[in-house]
Amino acid sequence: MPKASPTETSELAAPLPATYEGALSELEQLVIQLESGQMPLDLLLSGYQRGAALLAFCRDKLQAVEDQIKVLDGAQLKPWNGT
After folding, report:
1. How many Å apart are CA 47 and CA 71, to the nearest integer?
2. Which DSSP helix (H) or strand (E) runs through 34?
3. Of the chain's two ends, which shows fewer C-beta atoms within 10 Å, N or C?
4. What CATH architecture is 17-72?
5. What is the pLDDT of residue 78?
6. Which positions are tagged coiled coil (predicted)?
7. Are 53 and 39 contacting, i.e. CB atoms less than 8 angstroms apart?
8. In the chain, domain spans
């Protein structure tokens, strides 16, 4: 079975980005690659695992912000009206 090149392997095993925006951008690019149907099967699995890690990272960041907002608003989330 062919193995992933060192470059492909290192990209998928890279540490998580420092910011939510960085993780979201990488996740969006990964989704495009996965949906293209052009990735070999072994890279699909690695890509899926990387995507799951990025998604968990983004969810954690969003939860942390939501928790901070709850503290600022006295433990109540208020509806967002967008204005």
Report:
1. 36
2. helix 20-36
3. C
4. Orthogonal Bundle (1.10)
5. 67
6. none
7. no
8. 17-72
